[in-house]
Write a structure and sequence with these properties.
mainly alpha, rod-shaped, 149 residues, 3 helices
Amino acid sequence: MADQQTSELARAVQDITEKAQLLVHEEIELAKAEMTEKVTKLLKGAVFGIVAGVFAVFALVYLLHALSWSLWEVLGDESNFWLGFLITGVLILILGAIAGLIAMRLIKKGTPPKPELALEEAQLIKGTLTASTASRPAGAVQAPVEVER
């Protein structure tokens, strides 16, 4: 009989150990998934930021070129070649501004890169474990309740 209780206790300890290991592995996978999602958002934001920078450089080239043509025009020639360059430069600046706003929004969504769901789940588990161990001492058995008839 003592051997049977010992084997049942050993089986229970083994089950608890396996479930705890499974729980830890699941929490790690959840944290990995969250971090992957956050890093992806950060990378998308960085790509849009780079695109915004490229548009800004092109716009600077066109605007400087338009400024050169317009100064030449102001100095006395009658052709209006600079208007095309100016309109192109403004359009590129608008595209750069839009890409920059998209980049800023994506970066804000991705920061700070911490696994919030995994942390919440870990806090819930910790609270459950501390509440169940604090309410009853280890090895304590609840006395049967008498029912009056």
